[in-house]
Amino acid sequence: MDLLFSVLLQLFEPQHFMFLILGVLLGLSVGILPGLGGTTGLAILLPFVSSFEPSMALALMIGVLAPTTTSDTFPAVLIGIPGTAGSQATVLDGFPLAKQGFAARALSAAFTASLIGGLWGAFILSISIVFAKPIILAVGFGEQFLLIILALIMIGALTGANLVKGLASCTIGLVLGAIGLAEITGDPRLTFGSLYLVDGVPLIIVGMGLFAIPEIVGLLQSRSTIAGKDGLKGGWSQGMRDVVSNWFLVLRCSTIGVIVGALPGLGGTVVDWIAYSHMRQTAKNPENLGKGDIRGVIAPESANNAKEGGALIPTILFGIPGSGNKVLLLGGFLLIGIEPGIEMVTTQLDMTYLIIWSLALANVLGAGICIFLARPMSRITTTPYYLLAPVLIALIFFATYQINRDWNDFVGLLFFGLLGVILKTFGWSRPALLIGFFLSSKIELLSYQTSAVYGFSFLTRTGSLILIIVAVVTVWFLLRQKIQNELQSTDKSQQQAHMIVTASFMVFPIAMAIGVLGLDARASLYPMVLSAVLIIFLIFILWSQLRSLQSTRIGTPLPDKVLMRDVFSQDGALWPQLLEFSNLVIFMMLIVIFGFPIATVLFVICFIVHREPTRFVIASLLGFTLVGLMWLLSNLLTLQYPAGWIVNFVNLPWWLSGH
Amino acid sequence: MTSRNILKSTAIAFTISIGLASAALAECNFEGETITIVVPFGEGGGTSQTFGFFQPYLQKYLPGNPLIQMLNVPGGGSIKGANQFHNNQVVDGTYLLATSTSTVLNQAAGNPLVEYDLGAYKPVALIESNVHWFTSPTVSATAYDLGPLKERSLNLFALNSPSSADMFHVWIINKLGLDNARPIPGLSSSNGYQAFLRGEIQLSSHGTANYLRQVKQGIDAGEITDLMTLGWIQPDGSIERVPYAPDTPTFAEQFETMTGAPLSDDDLDTYMAINAIWNQASKALFLPTETSDEIVQCWTNAFAEIVKDADFIAEAPNRLGPFPLIIGDDARPVVARATSLSDGVVDQLNNALKANRLSYRIER
């Protein structure tokens, strides 16, 4: 106990504290930028870590990881783009709240919930140091398998009224996730002989394509600022009061966050959705959910900060990373000579305490800074679209390039961006698709692993029984909801467009089925089964769409999004969105010709001046600031930007991809 | 004036005084240059960490104290970065490739996407590792009696991907005559170890770093039973036990115990190839094919100096492991063994894959 508090005092020494704040500021920054997260923050840090004293490096690294899911709420609420994967569910209600002028209330509720969730995570982490080992050892292959099935059922719940479309979206994700080398045999599945697809499509590409691009396209199309001119009105205390009056929800969702975080592999991408689904199913009056209910902000935000504490349990005790950023954190641990394992609770207990206190303090600092900076940050929403959009587009392309430094990522981004626009316009569930994609390889592997170790006997293990009961209860809640027929636009051509889209999605299962035809059964069985299931779903949806097309019933002409309860889908025809999408294609072509940095200047300036010819000065300023930042990052990360065709003729400096 | 400064000024005076006499050495003065080490893996990965550790020492001991930067080019299981290196070779000693087992194996296994040729490059240094196998006390086998393991109806072991170095597990376990052993697919070594701790699999393995970090204490506490190591090949070709587990037999010893005869012919060749890929060249640093002998010499000299540095000697066991580096000419035969497999070796490995119903095959 003495050690516990002497470590806290150590953390308050000026040097340690400075490192912690430095980390927190970096974490907040990467959290705000869409597409970037703790993983990127740590990747930037890691080269420098070994030059610091271990305890300071620890404060720095934890400082980066902890607050990203606090500050990622800014873009989620203000512009409807999740700052990191952990705040995707926050968008559902946070963005509508901002549109209704309650941005301040949503943000303060989110920061308060994040703070409490983060502290709860640190608290559970400190307790679990004593008990975690037997718990983690009890979660075998069978339990992991059931847990993922449970997660998928919950996604069905998330898509609500349109159960079949939600499950179909999820299955499309599972099919796309099966691209790449077969998990069991190493046979290439639908890779078209390319090196790029051998590892499958990168998750970040799918995430950014499906979520960020459709929002930007929508922003371009709407040609207005995102929120009203008012920006942040009052409501700060209201948000905090919301959290207090929902204290039990915060506690439950924080606990979900800790548990999901502690389970290896599930990690940050799903924790916010699971918390959101839980909240939805237990909410007393769910009518307003998805349209701006403060509980829809509180639930995911308390969970996504709490998960850090949970995720550190397997990381510290077993050296088993639960997510991408924990892999880097472990790399950092090794660089400063900290070895995960039993030492962390014996000889190096002081380091473990330092991690716990850093986590707690970083959450307090992160939430505090966010509230303090909220007003300047909120100006993002009152920025005209023609200034914000080109910067966001450049940012997304930059983040994309960070993944593999591969041209194909740009192609993938455009493909999934287009898919995202179509899904959004026609009311398909993008979150379900993303989660299906993410969990696909895990499901395949776990089904083989479970059958090899247990056969069907895994179903009788205690943990399995608990999970099965939870799953059955979830399904029961699901079936209680009315499965409504799609009441879509009464416009016939609109209906026909819906059917064309549904039919064209057949290309996924059919291509996959043909692609795996000649392969070993262990490589082809899983994608074949998925393809069959998906075809059945699609035929069912087509059939129901055909029925509503034929019916002469004049239903209440509800717009799709009311039924979908999906903020990501908004009114808008496909064609104007495709026109705006072409901006991305133009940018891509500029990159091909000039290389990334020069293309960015040209694109930003031309775009702004084209829309608003009077703003030439600010356009140039913005363009060259971006290039300055790129130059800085190039130096920090030893980064060479994608080369353009122009390098064959002009001598460029190294960072501009010259020779 | 401190002694170091005196030394420094003496050295400067000395350099000036011999002037033209040092022209041969001046050919590899990297002063003011930036050296790029292509790392075909992501930041923070094992290969980045290993060569990141060398960064300050290389800067200190390479002539001219150049800036050392690592260029991470991840993707395609390291094929992408290594291909990029291959197609952009700069031969002035400022452009190098860092590899790990998977880079070597992709070439050895004849992956059609591989364009690079490690066998043609000039190896600078290899950082060696080892592989350990262990089981649970409930199996009641020991390193000196594998009988109980052989008698069980089913032994499960982790196999991440048959196209990775994990394929060697299949050959190793088959060669011990453990016909009842079956691979569980899709388990990385850390997930496999966790499943082992949960009692879901019986045979588990780890590389040196994780063995020392995680497994050793379990062995000392009697919770885990050590079975064998892959073995440590000496410069003269003999196979030794690893220094930090002197009571644990090598695979070669276990093979002899189980079959009554020492490793020979194709078995021995296969073993040597596996050891070269998995252990000896588990991390390696290469200069391009056409690099001049002087420049290669410069680099190997720098490594020869680094391993004498007091700080390095103190830190290396924690950061690189307990094995000495294999530098320069000593590395060449190892790289050759690792990258070009004889038909006999390919048959051995493919037969083991086939016997375990794995469809992956090494291409000739």
Please outline the major beta sheet of chain B: 6 strands, mixed
Strand content of chain B: 15-25%
How many whole angstroms does the radius of gyration of chain B measure? Answer: 22 Å
Instruction: Catalogue the unreliable spans of chain B.
Output: 1-26
- Pair with the biggest interface: A-B, 50 and 45 residues
Radius of gyration of chain A: 24 Å
Structure description:
The complex is a heterodimer of chains A (659) and B (364). Chain A has 659 residues and is mostly helical. Chain A has 28 helices and two strands. In chain A, strand 1 and strand 2 (188-189) form a beta hairpin. In chain A, 56% of the residues are buried. The radius of gyration of chain B is 22 Å and the shape is globular. By secondary structure, chain B is α/β, with parallel strands linked by helices. Residues 1-26 of chain B have low confidence and may be disordered. The chains are: A mainly alpha (659), B alpha/beta (364).
Short description:
The complex is a heterodimer of chains A (659) and B (364). Chain A has a two-stranded antiparallel sheet.
Features of this protein?
heterodimer, A: 659 residues, mainly alpha, two-stranded antiparallel ribbon, globular, B: alpha/beta, D-Maltodextrin-Binding Protein, domain 2, 3-stranded antiparallel beta sheet, disordered N terminus
Strand-helix topology:
The complex is a heterodimer of chains A (659) and B (364).
Chain A: H1 2-11, H2 14-32, H3 38-49, H4 54-65, H5 68-71, H6 73-78, H7 88-99, H8 103-138, H9 141-158, H10 163-177, E1 180-181, E2 188-189, H11 203-222, H12 236-245, H13 247-262, H14 267-282, H15 295-318, H16 324-335, H17 349-382, H18 385-404, H19 407-425, H20 430-453, H21 462-480, H22 492-504, H23 507-515, H24 521-550, H25 560-564, H26 574-594, H27 596-611, H28 616-637
Antiparallel strand pairs in A: 1-2
Chain B: H1 3-18, H2 23-26, E1 34-39, H3 46-61, E2 67-72, H4 79-87, E3 95-100, H5 101-108, E4 122-127, E5 131-135, H6 147-151, E6 155-159, H7 167-175, E7 181-185, H8 189-197, E8 203-207, H9 208-220, E9 225-229, E10 232-233, E11 239-240, H10 251-259, H11 265-280, E12 283-287, H12 293-306, H13 310-319, E13 326-327, H14 331-339, H15 343-355
